[in-house]
Protein: Two-component system response regulator
Organism: Pseudalgibacter alginicilyticus
Amino acid sequence: MNLSILIIEDNEQNMYMLSYLLKKSNYNVIKAYNGNDGLKLAHEHKPDIILIDIQLPDMDGYEICSKLAFNGLPKNTVYITVTSYAMGGDKEKSIEAGADGYIEKPIDPDIFVKQMESIYKTKN
């Protein structure tokens, strides 16, 4: 069974890059370009992994992470924040909001999938 991944990302170039890398590695990809759509798609599809950008137009990634992590999705769902907003405390704030891991942008295409898989394996 291929794992499914929901990407919540408003930047088209970042969405393209993440989708490309994940599809190339045989993951099923679901796309949301804002937080509200991301919440809806997460509950409809119950993906294995959710990649969440912190800076989104309608709500920040911390709020999305909190709403998802503590609101009815399977316990083994993995939440990973992915952001270029890398300021001191962002990783800790992500974890406090319910994220299982944190990856900084710009992502390294050569190691991104391995980073994500490592976070996934830590929880599962």
User: Anything to note?
Assistant: The CA atoms of residues 19 and 29 lie 6 Å apart. The mean pLDDT is 91. The longest helix spans residues 12-24. The chain has one domain: 4-123.
